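Notes from hallway chat w/ T.B., transcribed later so I don't forget. T.B. wanted the structure written out for a chain they're using in a teaching module, and asked if we could keep both sequence and structure tokens in one place. Agreed to drop them here.
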Amino acid sequence: MESPSFLDNLFFFIIRPLLAISFVVCFIALWWFLAWKLVLSHVPLVQEIFGLRKKTFKPKPESRGRIAKFYRSISSQNSVPQW
């Protein structure tokens, strides 16, 4: 039985663990990239956290909907002076 050579020990204790760690890191990075491109970049909360989108504030229109029209019609009926 012969003892393992220096290259065998180097491969077993240094190169092989480095290859395993790099494989795992590349695997995680690949799936993170795919998740980012397909899902995460479209989520508004993630966009705000990473500063990808500036929040734009639009002024609200005067007549926003049915309720505003209803109250406007009531106020216009009440504002007519009665003689």
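Follow-up for T.B.: The mean pLDDT is 81. Might be a good example for the class.
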